[in-house]
Amino acid sequence: MNYMKKRGQMTIFIIVAIALVVIILLFFLFRPQIGNILGNEISPNSYLEGCIEPEIKPAVNILSQQGSYQNPEGYISYKGSKVKYLCYTDDFYETCTVQQPMTKGNFEKELNLMVKAKANKCVRNLIEEYEKRGYEVTSGGIDSSASIVPGKIIVSFNAPMTVTKQTSEKYQSFDVEIESQMYDLLFIATSLVQNEVKVGDSATELYLQYYPDLKIEKTKLTDGTKIYKLTNVVTEEQFTFASRSLSWPAGYGLEENK
Amino acid sequence: MIKHKFKLFLQIFLLITSIIAFADIMKEVQAGMPSANMQNKKIGLMTILFLALKIITVTLFNEKTLVSALNSDDLQKGTYTCIKSKDGSLCQEYPASECNSKCDGQCLPTGRENVQSCQVGTCFDPDSGICQERSTRESCEVNGGQWFDDPAGNVAQCQKSCCVVGDETVPLVTLRECQKIEETTGVTTTFRTDAKNEIVCWALGKTKVEGACVFESDNKCRFLTKGECYGNGGEFFEGILCTHPDFNMGYEKQATAKCVEGKDELYWFDSEGNRENIYDGNKVKSWNDGKVLIKEESCDISEGNNALGNQKTCGNCNSLLGSVCGQKTEKEKLSANGIDEVCRDTRCTDSSGNLRENGESWCEYQGDIGEDKGAKGFSRSADTPGSRHFRASCIDGEVQVNACADYRNEVCIESQLERGDGEKISNSACVTNLWQLCINYNSEVKGKGAERKAQLETRNDKCIKNPHCMLKQVDVADNFKFDLCVPRYAPGFDLKKNAEGGELSCAFANQKCTVFFVKELSGWEVKANEGCLKNGFAEQMNDMCMSLGDCGASVNYMGDLTKNYKVKNTKKLDKEYLNDISQYSDTVEGKYATMNVTQYIDSVGGLEKSGFKKKDPNCNLPVGCELVPDTDVLQTAGTISGLAGSALLLLAGTDFAAGFFVAIPGSGVASLSGIAAPLAGAAIGFAVTSLLIQLTGIGGGLDPAVTWTLIAAGTVGGAIIGTTVIAAGGLKAAGATCAAGGVGCIVGVVILIVVVLIIVIFKALGIGDTKKKVVRFQCQPWQPILGGAKCGECGKDGYDCSRYSCHSLGQTCELINEGTSDEKCIDLSPNDVSAPIISPWKEALNSGFKYEENNNGMKIISSEEDGCIKSYENVIFGISLNEPGYCKYDVKNNVEFEEMEFDFGDRNLFLTNHSQLFAVPDLSSLGLPGYDPNRRSDFSLYTRCIDGNGNGKDSAEYAINFCIKPGVDKTPPIIAGREPILENAPFNASKIDAKVFINEPAECKWSLDSNKDYENMENSMECLSDVEDRESIFGWECSTTFEIDKNENSFFIKCLDQPWKEENNSERNVMINPYEYKIIRTTNPLIINSVKPNNETLIFGVEPASVTLELTTSGGVDGRATCKLFGKAMGETYKTTHKQIFNKIFSGNYEFPIECEDTAGNTALATSKFEVNLDSSPPSVSRVYKQGESLVIVTNEDAECSYLKFGREGEECLFDFKNGTIMSGREKIHSTPFDKGKFYVKCKDKWGYVPGTCSVVVNGGDYELQ
Fold it and tell me: Nearest-CA distance from A71 to chain B in Å?
């Protein structure tokens, strides 16, 4: 009888121990949600980052394949993408005219346009989240901007708000940073365009000496267009653009209207 | 009794003659030959075997209504500018007639340079600091950029120098970029304006001192740089590892090994993750008692000649010698277990199995290339149709193959350099093929006698010095030998889009050799050019033909031979020769194109010595010696690239270029594609322009600048020719139906002045009479084999398939889905077994004729009662096919297609429409009996056409039937053209060499009196009145020299036809009204009115600077002229204002000789002299005074001044200029209300130079100059 009692106790202890372990595990796994349920602090930056990041990467991907444009005009269709001409001339024997002198600025502008709606929604969701937790939120307008700097892409939310519950916290803006080497790729693209403009071509091997993680593929098409694809072999980010400069016709180029 | 019978055979020989210059060359060749006086014909007895009807054929290009692509207005208007095109491109130029259809908006009737929003300058991004040259104002400003009116970036904001960022450096960035780096990284930066090239900049970077950094607070050690350690508050031990026993940290040494970002080598790491020394299987040696072991003292990964001999035990990778740290593989790993990284071999193996170093580049080809020995040991070009050059490079163990431009517009050149260890390293580049220059050199030979001889020598010299040209010799017979400058790397053609261009190039090899026989007692003996009848003539001519481009008998890059040539009266190419050229589809191991870089750049004419010298004459670095301008040597401070308008300062093979492109072996070669391309662009552009101008007869008043823009825009140069021809009345005389530019005009484009034919006339002549046999070679554009069986082979040789290579594999091969991942070369009509269907081409037929179709073909009927075509009548007719086809005909029926003698329209191209002009001469001009009004002749041209698959060879012939009757020539001759075309003569001309062209053989005289009859005219002209002497589309040539003694001169010419009827003048027709040949001597000389800059000093704040040389012309014909500097046309010219921009001007003295010439040949000379000084100092204050209530400051140069009244003590003068209060006045005088207190003033000049401290400090009446 005693033996049976001891076995039973042991069983209960084991069950309780297992339950405790499971609870602890669950706690660590779902802590943010638990925190929310229990009414813990929201970290606005983390919240916004979690909200906007899934939107940024696909947008960057589209822009990088199309020479920094979502809907490019003045492009060439190549392997399923509309590759923007950053430098172009319709003529033979002449160097090109720059079609977009501020590639980085354009990339930022286009990226912002692409994520803007979602960014606004994220901020509104954040406000709602605060309000659900009993905070009083006063907010102004919402604006966002994207900037590309060495090593990262920053999406800034200009969303002044005051969050009050017992105490007040004022926020002016929030920055979401994503690691990216796109700055270098855009910088190199600008440099390649400069060469296309000045001398009608570029010596890509020079860049490979300075940027060991860089791969540049230059494809010359029959009509004189060059497709440049720049890839960071480590992060696998890439940037593609087209240029048509100092092209030569076949023979004397005496052909019918193009 | 002279009986004669004749059988009328139609012998049509179409000969595409070379252009006038070549005809001149050939005339020289034939000058010494005895001439046969064709007028001394006797009518033969009996055995006139055949009589040829003379058919003058003009090739018509109506395949795609080319005339409609360009109307005659374009020739005057040139190109218009479209700010935004429908395809989204900005600021493009189009021919006037096309602009509206391509433009999204209004077209502006002017060139791009005159449209403000399309003006090119430099765009500066004020946020990132990036400068983009050649940006249009609008595209810059709309994106928030700052635009400067200097396309070369020579503005203060875009000056690039070295940015020092902590211990590292970033070369060649602008000041703003450097500031941006500081903003984003938080690291203080310094902008070093004294370090303008990479080498010097990198030298400023500090070597990072590394060692153990101990943190007492938590008793931890980290392996850091000195800067990092102190920045984190640690104690630094230089050259010591964290596992040094003295630290007693308890870390396990050499716990793991892995790669480090930014470093080549594999390193040991301790258990805390601190880097130790380079991995060595000998752990003791590597640990080095806990001290840092430098790379040079670490293990050697190489062993003997094997650069990775110790790969399994050593981690001392070396990227320059072919290894870098990376993930292990099955074949490459360390002996030790548990380490996933190793020094990976970054070398490559090329397609021939050779080992290549990392960074090495070499050329690959699709067959033989360049020069090879041909017939009689003379050179010929070996590049095959469809082939392309490729540049391969080894990058981190991977071979990357990049194609040079297609159609061999670029060729791959290679150089081999010896490394320090004796290894040969290849370096290659794709460079522009200068083939157009080679052809153009020949057209510069125009004169006569001694002048011609000198021109030939100049031509030969240029040809030999141009590394892309070679002097092709032909030496067949005693009087048939000449040289021609041809491309060393024959260019390719796009025959589907550009058939005319191919024919143009190939036509340069069309030649005739006249063999003379003299009747001796023993029979006819050859007296001259016997060699033309033998083996060797066709071979040498085909060698020349192949060297001009995709022409003649040749193989494609896969080895398929086709024979695209015609010979008459001599042997065809023999088997041995054909076998020989068939080898060209095989690559030749070890053969690559080489090039003298300096010669190449000299050939494009734009590169003058820049005049640089070493700053330190003792500098012996292979690259990177700092250079300074040496204006004593200077010719130009950059190069003139003519229409490209940009000036470059690039040298090959000099320290400057080497330093410029930094530490790349043979960098002059590697970068060459970039260096010379725009120079080539301009040079080639001019060559093409000048050649086409000659062919088109630009003297018709067309503005060369207009012509150039149209050619550059890719419009059909032939349309210019066609319109000119029409305008000159040439084809009107031939009875063409079209008016210039009219709808339905089919005779618009005559790219090739295809004239004349040969009549083989055999007559029995008496003893002492001569006869001649004309041997001809016609060089045709290369055509691929029939069908498309080989289309699928495209790309299987490992190189990407392109449109050019695909088309070369078969007539029906086409590249589909171009630019997509489904791109492939396929047979477009694999199941086509139907022959082309032939029908009359109604639009081709000129008025006065009609077709009458029948079961066997058609009959051409004239408006005469009997429907027959009279002598001296010209008819144009044609056939239309339901698919592109190649058509031939013969005068006999039932001849096999291969054996048919003549190409329809004398073209071997596959077209849907074929046309022919048929001009019937007077039969008596051929020595036939006189006029018999009852004589008729019916004959047919038996025609067959095949399609791309060869269908149609056996189909029924299509018979084109005519009847011809002799006609009495009752019309007087017509003068159809003149040379020179323009009436203008130079200001001081006293005589002029004049030519007129007559529509039939004739004799001509001239007089100053317009009322004189022909017989009484005092002066005879020299006329080529032999039937076969017609060399021009305008007709037969008569020439003379007119003496000019006043400003307006008129010479009246009359001509008498049928010169062979000298005994029967009554049957001859004379011009009733004379032709007035006007020559107007320009009344004023050509003057260069103003040259700017001249005799002045220019001051710039940045170096290099941009200077625009401008001048105007007046006088001469109409004030317009072509102005040149050093023999090259200025960037903007052909007008009354002329401009050239130099964008690499350094301090020094400059002198530019200027030569201008107008269309009449008037010339003017001038010189531009100026001095350039650099003002790199901020403005200084020369006076300070009080005027009323104002403080007045006077500076020594135009400036802007600002001031501060307060500041931190001792730092008042360290304020940023833009944070001060701006004083009024932007030139030299500046003022502000003078109230109490101190004024700390800074002044900035227009270049942006500001002093580091105050320009002046003013305190209540006193001032203190800084």
Answer: 11
Give the model confidence (pLDDT) of B95-150 as tens digits. Answer: 888 888 999 988 898 888 788 888 888 999 998 898 998 888 888 988 889 999 88
In which band, very low, low, confident or very high, does the pLDDT at B754 lie, cut at 50, 70 and 90? very low
The minimal CB distance from A79 to the residues B87, B643, B819 is found for B819
Mean of pLDDT values over B456-463? 91
Would you kindly state where each structural domain of chain B is located, as residue ranges? 76-151, 161-204, 241-317+323-346, 355-432, 445-584+779-827, 838-915+924-965, 975-1081, 1181-1265
Q: Is A166 on the interface with B (CB under 8 A)?
A: no
**Of B625 and B334, which is predicted with more confidence?**
B334
B986-1004: average pLDDT: 88
Q: Which of B89, B357, B394, B623 to mutate to test the interface with A (most CBs of A within 10 A)?
A: B89
Residues in contact with B1140: Cβ distance below 8 Å, sequence separation at least 6, in sequence order: B640, B645, B1108, B1109, B1125, B1130, B1131, B1132
CB contact under 8 A, B407 and A193: no
* A27 interface with B at CB cutoff 8 Å: no
Q: According to the model, what pLDDT value does residue B936 have?
A: 60
* Chain A nearest-CA residue for B504: A252
pLDDT for position B928: 46
Residue, of B77 and B272, whose pLDDT is higher: B272
Mean per-residue pLDDT, A142-149: 89
Q: What is the chain A residue with the closest CA to B139?
A: A100
Q: How many CB pairs under 8 A join A and B?
A: 261
Cis peptide before B980 (omega within 30 of 0): yes
In DSSP terms, B978 is beta-bridged to B996
Check if B119 contacts A (Cβ < 8 Å). no
Q: Which 99-158 residues of chain A touch chain B by CB within 8 A?
A: 99-102, 104-106, 109, 149-150
Sequence-separated (6 or more) residues with CB below 8 Å from residue B1253? B1213, B1214, B1266
What is the model's pLDDT at position B1111? Answer: 94
- Tally Cβ neighbours within 10 Å of residue A15: 10
CA quadruple A242, A247, A249, A254: dihedral sign: positive
- Contact between B714 and A97 using a beta-carbon 8 Å cutoff: no
| Residue of A154, A190, A252 for testing the chain B interface, max B β-carbons within 10 Å | A252
Q: What is the pLDDT of residue B844?
A: 85
Please indicate whether, in this complex, the C-beta atoms of A105 and B128 are within 8 angstroms of each other: yes
> Do B975-1081 and B1181-1265 agree at the fold level?
yes
Long-range Cβ contact pairs of B324-332 (< 8 A, separation 24 or more): B324/B264, B324/B358, B324/B396, B325/B259, B325/B260, B325/B263, B325/B264, B325/B265, B325/B266, B326/B259
Contact B714 A255 (CB under 8 A): yes
Mean pLDDT of chain B: 77
DSSP state for residue B830 in the 8-state scheme:
T
Q: What is the ipTM of this complex?
A: 0.79
Residue B642 has pLDDT above 50, yes or no: no
- B139 vs A99: CB contact, 8 Å cut-off? yes
Could you state, in order of their start, the residue ranges of all structural domains in chain A? 39-57+110-179, 66-103+182-244
CB atoms within 10 A of CB A135: 18
Contacts of A75 in chain B (CB under 8 A): 88
Whether B819 has its CB under 8 Å from any CB of chain A: the answer is: yes
* Closest A-chain CA to B91: A97
Q: Could you tell me the fold of the domain covering B1181-1265?
A: Immunoglobulin-like (2.60.40)
CATH code of the region B975-1081: 2.60.40
Q: Give the distance, in angstroms, between the CA of residue B781 and the centroid of all CA atoms in the same chain.
A: 20
Q: Is the Cβ pair B688, A101 closer than 8 Å?
A: no
Task: Answer whether 0.90 is exceeded by the pTM.
Answer: no
Distance, in Å, from the CA atom of B681 to the CA atom of B645, rounded to the nearest integer, reads 11
